[in-house]
Task: inverse folding
């Protein structure tokens, strides 16, 4: 099967790229290795659409997405992506936390972000449910959150409506060059797909796929775990984080709280199917209750896990590959790809059609290591 | 291999589309049928898109119903559809209890 662009990976990066290409009349085939669209980190993350706390090199991507795309995304995708832009509180309770938050805040201010340090009193003015434990916080009023499930499936739905061709259960094993150019994608089932451009956006699996044309990206799979609670009446709409990143999350439109967890053991999780550990939910509940005592009685309904593709320097690779003309890489999003996905999809569609990209991508080159 | 472009026909409105199938999340039969025509071809995708089976009962009431509706819409057998993954804890549990981690709070 042929198309102008073949995308390997049906996560939110692949789906948003397919949407942007299909919208401009470019023919595109998306190959998803698993049985389900958006089966990796795309639908398993905590839903942050944050600028604060982000690597300065990644900031322009998320600032662009927040200024230009997120607000209109529900209309664009004919799907409620539940975007809320009511700020991000990153909370701390010790001198060390203050130092961490202050460092992050100073770096972000240098990049032109509206973020500042506040004390516990001001934090409780913003969010009255916070306990007295909280003594400091960073506050970024333009941050927010969205629903990773509906955003990912929304991009898929609209890309498909616009003519993008999706095939799941089609695991890519090899990229094949023809006359020195990446042209063919071979799958486990023996099918061959051919395109002028091949975009690999397959999370950690990208490493194996592009190794077949001699390219390597230094990244490791790291587990992420998340929990969701029962629905309760609306309490607050800010995105929350902590200086130690031991939990992060928000209340959703549905009324449930979604919290990402961090027990410290995530980089050492057993490979294979991502499985919730027995300790992370309990550890996170202790952290959450310390800062939000009023959530003690709320019931946890579900927990799940997923893999993120943690890159050596914790920012993604978004880059054409010079030695392999026709190949474009989009991987190593290191657990913060969701908030920037709408911008990355636009930029990848520009790379694939050899247009000038709206933002400079030189920090994300594949050969920076 | 699951080709999302394969022809499953048009969505045809039905008299019973307003019946609530997932009672916890109040999702109707019509919403499920339309989601299939919007490309949600697996029970996991339906769940992510509509929240079926993600409420307090964790799908104990509606899983079979959703499965048969999706299968019929796709023109396949219900047994051809993989169930969505069950998630811990199997019953809703308060944070203060989970936080104890097998130990007393005090």
Result:
């Amino acid at each position: 099967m042929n198309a102008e662009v073949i995308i390997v990976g049906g996560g939110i990066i692949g789906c948003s790229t397919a949407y942007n290409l299909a919208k401009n009349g470019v023919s595109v085939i998306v190959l998803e290795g698993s049985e389900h669209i958006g089966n990796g980190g795309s639908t398993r993350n905590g839903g942050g659409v944050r600028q604060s706390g982000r690597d300065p090199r990644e900031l322009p991507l998320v600032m662009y997405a927040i200024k230009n795309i997120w607000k209109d995304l529900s209309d664009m995708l004919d799907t409620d992506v539940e975007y809320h832009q009511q700020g991000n509180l990153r909370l701390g309770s010790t001198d060390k936390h203050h130092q961490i938050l202050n460092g992050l805040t100073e770096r972000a201010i240098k990049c032109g972000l509206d973020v500042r340090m506040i004390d516990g009193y001001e934090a409780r003015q913003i969010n009255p449910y916070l306990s007295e434990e909280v003594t400091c916080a960073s506050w970024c009023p333009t941050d927010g959150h969205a629903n990773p499930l509906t955003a990912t499936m929304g991009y898929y739905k609209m890309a498909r409506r616009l003519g993008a061709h999706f095939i799941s259960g089609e695991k890519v094993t090899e990229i094949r060059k023809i006359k020195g150019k990446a042209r063919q994608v071979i799958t486990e089932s023996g099918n061959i797909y051919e395109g002028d451009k091949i975009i690999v956006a397959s999370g950690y699996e990208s490493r194996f796929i592009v190794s077949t044309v001699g390219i390597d990206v230094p990244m490791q799979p790291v587990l992420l775990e998340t929990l969701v609670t029962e629905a309760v009446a609306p309490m607050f709409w800010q995105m929350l984080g902590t200086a130690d990143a031991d939990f992060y999350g928000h209340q959703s439109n549905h009324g449930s709280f979604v919290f990402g967890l961090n027990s410290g053991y995530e980089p050492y999780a057993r490979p294979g199917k991502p499985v919730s550990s027995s300790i992370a939910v309990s550890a996170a509940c202790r952290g959450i209750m310390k800062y939000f005592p009023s959530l003690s009685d709320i019931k946890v309904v579900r927990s799940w896990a997923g893999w993120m593709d943690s890159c050596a320097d914790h920012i993604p690779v978004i880059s054409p590959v010079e030695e392999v003309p026709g190949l474009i890489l989009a991987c190593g999003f290191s657990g913060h790809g969701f908030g920037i996905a709408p911008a990355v999809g636009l930029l990848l569609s520009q790379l694939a059609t050899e247009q000038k990209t709206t933002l400079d991508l030189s920090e994300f080159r594949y050969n920076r290591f | 291999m699951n080709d999302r472009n394969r022809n499953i026909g048009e969505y045809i409105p039905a008299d019973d589309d307003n019946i609530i199938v997932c009672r916890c999340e109040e999702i109707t039969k019509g919403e499920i049928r339309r989601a299939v025509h919007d490309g949600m071809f697996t029970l996991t995708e339906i769940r992510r898109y509509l929240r079926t089976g993600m409420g307090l009962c964790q799908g104990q009431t509606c899983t079979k119903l959703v499965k048969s509706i999706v299968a019929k819409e796709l023109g396949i057998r219900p047994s051809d559809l993989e169930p969505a993954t069950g998630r811990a804890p199997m019953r809703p549990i308060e944070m203060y209890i989970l936080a104890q981690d097998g130990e007393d709070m005090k």
Notes: The radius of gyration of chain A is 20 Å. Chain A touches chain B through 47 residues (CB under 8 Å).
